[in-house]
């Protein structure tokens, strides 16, 4: 009996032209492709054996946020597995209303970078277990970092970015991960700007460096092209959960196939 | 196809979910409805007394939880006293015990739980990944109506296709998220255990059997969780 590794599908939800919530999936970094209805997809993944479900609100507007809470409620009604919701969370009020809508955890990126006390406040009021700190890491091969790893013979550090990688912060991901954990984060959600949409595997050096830095669970994200990539991130990089979007959304692999592969290769999964 | 998400048509029992201002009440409500209960979310003590069963939900920190629930303390103790089933989930289960190391940190004074199952909630060891977060197995140690149909030990059944109602789980995996675990003074209070580098109690119950709790979230534990919720609703219906 051991704690299993988690396989997690993730949806990015925006409003379509008519103001209705819709799932979009990034293809080749930039292009967003309409993928489906969030509630239907949640229902399908719940049934397909997903261990958790991640819902990221990628709308920017206030109206979008209202609509999203309504969608979160409808998604929560469909899933009997944990639901993490992220996007635009900046205050304890945002955390509270997201949890009230049915989320089990909230994922916070910019809100916590800009005001780190939010992590303490959220953990104190709602418990560490529901505070997921998400980082959008970018590889930097210059001298601005604090912690370096070697990648292809070069020294690399990882920078926290904002706005999906369009804005740098100068903050070292490993410094921030340790700080977020000390402030009460219950889980770290590690995205890689370099790997996002590539499908050539997770950023293993990044994931490994973060899991060696913190004791809290690490969810690896960005770059999953198939079950082998999940196997690598679990066995080589110490991730506790592997997140993927397009391989599941576009039916390249099912959750069951992914878990069967992991199981056959000795990775404990819930089946 | 959409029937999988609709509540059962006939309610088997009326269940109150205690609203003490914290956490996600929606999913536990949906889970209970799915298990056949007629659910009311309330902080009205009169409703507790009238219900067939009471659920003390929980997400969050012990101190916050106990402080928020404090105005309802006497009412919850009365529920337990009267023999009505009282089901604590996660933090709600921890609140059934006497105290917690969690409420005792940062130089603050100890926070008293409900003391319905004497014992303490303790933190996982240093160096262990906390929270213990994810799917882990239940090892049923003794009979209790809450674990009816939940096999002891390792799972044998395997999900054969994607059509399993309500979720996707088989075997006895349940979803945990916690950094503290219950240590009842009386070993007989332990109904099931789970292994996370150490064995810890994952289901506990009082001597009378009407007060019990799960460290995991049954409402988030797919089919195994729904079975436990159905068992709870049965217990309530039998009252």
Automatic annotation (TrEMBL), chain A:
One of its GO terms (biological process) is L-histidine biosynthetic process. Keywords: Amino-acid biosynthesis, Cytoplasm, Histidine biosynthesis, Lyase. It is found in: Cytoplasm. GO terms for molecular function: imidazoleglycerol-phosphate synthase activity; lyase activity. It catalyses: 5-[(5-phospho-1-deoxy-D-ribulos-1-ylimino)methylamino]-1-(5-phospho-beta-D-ribosyl)imidazole-4-carboxamide + L-glutamine = D-erythro-1-(imidazol-4-yl)glycerol 3-phosphate + 5-amino-1-(5-phospho-beta-D-ribosyl)imidazole-4-carboxamide + L-glutamate + H(+). One of its GO terms (cellular component) is cytoplasm. Pathway: Amino-acid biosynthesis; L-histidine biosynthesis; L-histidine from 5-phospho-alpha-D-ribose 1-diphosphate: step 5/9. SUPFAM superfamilies: Ribulose-phoshate binding barrel. The active site is at 12, 136. The keyword Ribosomal protein does not apply. Its EC number is 4.3.2.10. The keyword Nucleotide-binding does not apply. Coiled coil: none annotated. IGPS catalyzes the conversion of PRFAR and glutamine to IGP, AICAR and glutamate. The HisF subunit catalyzes the cyclization activity that produces IGP and AICAR from PRFAR using the ammonia provided by the HisH subunit. Heterodimer of HisH and HisF. Belongs to the HisA/HisF family. This is Imidazole glycerol phosphate synthase subunit HisF. It comes from Natrinema salifodinae.
UniProtKB/TrEMBL annotation, chain B:
It is found in: Cytoplasm. Residues 16-233 form the Glutamine amidotransferase domain. Its EC number is 4.3.2.10, 3.5.1.2. GO terms for biological process: L-histidine biosynthetic process. Gene3D superfamilies: 3.40.50.880. One of its GO terms (molecular function) is lyase activity. One of its GO terms (cellular component) is cytoplasm. InterPro entries: Class_I_gatase-like, GATASE, Imidazole-glycPsynth_HisH. The active site is at residues 90, 217, 219. It catalyses: L-glutamine + H2O = L-glutamate + NH4(+); 5-[(5-phospho-1-deoxy-D-ribulos-1-ylimino)methylamino]-1-(5-phospho-beta-D-ribosyl)imidazole-4-carboxamide + L-glutamine = D-erythro-1-(imidazol-4-yl)glycerol 3-phosphate + 5-amino-1-(5-phospho-beta-D-ribosyl)imidazole-4-carboxamide + L-glutamate + H(+). Pathway: Amino-acid biosynthesis; L-histidine biosynthesis; L-histidine from 5-phospho-alpha-D-ribose 1-diphosphate: step 5/9. Keywords: Amino-acid biosynthesis, Cytoplasm, Glutamine amidotransferase, Histidine biosynthesis, Hydrolase, Lyase. It holds the Pfam family GATase. PANTHER family: IMIDAZOLE GLYCEROL PHOSPHATE SYNTHASE SUBUNIT HISH. IGPS catalyzes the conversion of PRFAR and glutamine to IGP, AICAR and glutamate. The HisH subunit catalyzes the hydrolysis of glutamine to glutamate and ammonia as part of the synthesis of IGP and AICAR. The resulting ammonia molecule is channeled to the active site of HisF. Heterodimer of HisH and HisF. HAMAP family: HisH. This is Imidazole glycerol phosphate synthase subunit HisH. The lineage of its organism: Archaea, Methanobacteriati, Methanobacteriota, Stenosarchaea group, Halobacteria. The gene is hisH.
């Amino acid at each position: 009996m051991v704690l299993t590794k988690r396989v997690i599908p993730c949806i990015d939800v925006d409003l379509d032209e008519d103001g209705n919530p819709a799932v979009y999936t990034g293809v080749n970094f930039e292009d967003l492709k309409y993928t489906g209805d969030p509630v239907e997809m949640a229902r399908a993944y719940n049934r397909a054996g997903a261990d958790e479900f991640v819902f990221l609100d990628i709308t920017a507007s206030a109206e979008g946020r209202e609509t999203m809470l309504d969608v979160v409620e409808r998604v929560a009604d469909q899933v009997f597995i944990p639901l993490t919701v992220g996007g635009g969370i900046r205050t304890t009020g945002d955390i509270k209303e997201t949890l009230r809508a049915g989320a089990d955890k909230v994922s916070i990126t910019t809100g916590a970078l800009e005001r780190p006390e939010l992590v303490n406040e959220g953990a104190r009021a709602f418990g560490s277990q529901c505070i997921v700190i998400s980082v959008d890491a970018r590889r930097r091969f210059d001298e601005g970092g604090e912690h370096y790893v070697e990648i292809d013979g070069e020294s690399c550090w990882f920078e926290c970015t904002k706005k999906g990688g369009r804005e740098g912060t100068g903050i070292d991901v490993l410094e921030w991960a340790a700080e977020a954990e000390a402030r009460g984060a219950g889980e770290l959600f590690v995205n890689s700007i370099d790997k996002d949409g590539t499908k050539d595997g997770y950023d293993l050096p990044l994931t490994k460096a973060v899991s060696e830095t913190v004791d809290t669970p690490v969810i690896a994200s960005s770059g999953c092209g198939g079950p082998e990539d999940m196997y690598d991130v679990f066995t080589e990089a110490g991730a506790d959960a592997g997140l993927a979007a397009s391989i599941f959304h576009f039916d390249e692999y099912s959750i069951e196939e992914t878990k069967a592969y992991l199981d056959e290769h000795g990775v404990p999964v819930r089946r | 196809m959409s029937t999988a998400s609709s509540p059962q048509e006939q309610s088997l029992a009326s269940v109150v979910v205690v609203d003490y201002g914290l956490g996600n009440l929606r999913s536990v409500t949906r889970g209970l409805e799915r298990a056949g209960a007629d659910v009311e979310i309330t902080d009205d003590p009169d409703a507790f007394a009238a219900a067939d069963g009471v659920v003390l939900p929980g997400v969050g920190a012990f101190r916050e939880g106990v402080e928020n629930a404090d105005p309802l303390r006497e009412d919850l103790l009365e529920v337990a006293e009267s023999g009505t089933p009282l089901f604590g989930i996660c933090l709600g289960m921890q609140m059934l015990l006497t105290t917690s190391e969690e409420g005792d940190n940062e130089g603050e004074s100890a926070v008293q739980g409900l003391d319905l199952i004497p014992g303490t909630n303790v933190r996982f060891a240093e160096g262990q990944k906390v929270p213990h977060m994810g799917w882990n197995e239940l090892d049923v140690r003794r009979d209790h109506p809450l674990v009816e149909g939940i096999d002891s030990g390792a799972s044998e059944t395997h999900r054969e296709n994607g059509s399993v109602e309500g979720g996707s789980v088989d075997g006895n995996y349940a979803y945990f998220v916690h950094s503290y675990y219950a240590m009842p003074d009386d070993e007989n209070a332990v109904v099931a255990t789970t292994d996370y580098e150490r064995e810890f109690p994952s289901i506990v119950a009082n001597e009378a059997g009407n007060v019990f709790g799960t460290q995991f979230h049954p409402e988030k534990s797919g089919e195994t969780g729904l079975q436990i919720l159905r068992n709870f609703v049965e217990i309530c219906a039998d009252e």
